[in-house]
Design goal:
Elements lengths: L3 H15 L6 E4 L14 E7 L2 E6 L9 E6 L5 E6 L11 E7 L2 E6 L3 E5 L1 H7 L10 H5 L1 H13 L6 H6 L9 H11 L13 H15 L35 E5 L14 E5 L16 E3 L1
Helix pairs in contact: 4-7, 6-7
């Protein structure tokens, strides 16, 4: 599943391509909304909210019924932007969203979902999301946003911090890569219960710094080294030596509790940890949720 910075970059590129322009072609290639016709309408803006992308389309020629296209890339989704009329470099059957203006075409392939809803419905769908690490609200009042994220994380103290960080209801934008890197930099094993993390404020603050630092980068970097193969501390380094101490990095599955209310980001995901730099703390009595790979 994409990280918040990737979604932010995709929405920014879509905004540059579409905002303030009239749609000359608009296809929603999903059965439920295939009959929705947005041709002739102007795109007001494209913005991200956590890992969601919202395309805000203005009212029709009668000044009524504005539409918001709500989509999520999930695991396989991609956004392609090219000159109108260019040959697609991907199979046509994977296209779910096609938006064209004079000179530019935006295509979303293999999207996790695509909904055409009213602006109020879009707001309602995202109401439970936690503070967006790359959102404007955080920029306007970082102290309040940080405090709210900490409050939400601490609300379930027996949950592992690794699961809590991926739960978009706590704070929006962290995926498995940032979870691995954030926990390493804070010296926290992802299996540690939230109650045993002494400085949630520091973790949230660093999460914000990491995503902001990479919001406009083509290559994600957490180590300070942009050389290929040196960008990340532990993610993707199963069995390889820790860059800091040399201990072999471990991987395990984390999450997957049979909780029908748990969002998809709280389900079974791979996690990374250095046993030396991220010692396990206060795990006695915690419900085991990881499976060694």
């Amino acid at each position: 599943m994409p990280e918040g910075d990737s979604v932010y970059q995709a929405s920014s590129r879509m905004h540059q391509a579409l905002a303030g322009r009239t749609l000359t072609r608009a296809e929603l290639r999903v059965p439920r909304f295939s009959a929705v016709d947005l041709t002739g309408r102007m795109v007001d803006e494209v913005r991200s909210r956590g890992k969601n992308i919202l395309v805000v389309v203005g009212p029709n020629s009668h000044g009524r019924d504005p539409v918001t296209l709500h989509t999520h890339l999930k695991m396989e989704g991609r956004i392609h932007i090219h000159r109108a009329g260019d040959r697609w470099r991907f199979p046509a059957h994977t296209a779910r969203l096609v938006l064209r203006t004079d000179g530019v075409e935006v295509v979303g392939t293999e999207l996790g979902f695509l909904h055409a809803v009213t602006p109020a419905e879009a707001d309602a769908a995202l109401r439970d999301l936690g503070p967006d690490l790359l959102g404007e609200d955080w920029s306007r009042d970082p102290r309040a946003a940080t405090a709210e994220a900490v409050r939400r994380l601490a609300a379930r103290p027996d949950r592992t911090v690794g699961e809590a960080l991926l739960d978009q209801r706590n704070l929006a934008g962290i995926g498995t890569i940032y979870r691995a890197e954030l926990c390493f930099l804070r010296g926290i094993d992802p299996r540690t219960p939230v109650r045993a993390v002494s400085d949630l404020l520091g973790a949230v603050t660093l999460a914000r710094r990491l995503l902001v630092a990479n919001a406009d980068r083509r290559m994600r970097v957490t180590t300070g080294e942009a050389r290929r193969g040196r960008e990340l501390w532990v993610y993707g380094r199963d069995g390889k030596p820790c860059r800091r101490c040399g201990t072999a990095v471990e991987t395990f599955r984390l999450g997957g509790r049979a909780d029908p209310l748990a969002p998809s980001d709280s389900l079974d995901r791979i996690a990374y940890s250095c046993p030396s730099c991220q010692p396990r703390r206060d795990t006695l009595g915690a419900t085991p949720t990881e499976e060694k790979t």
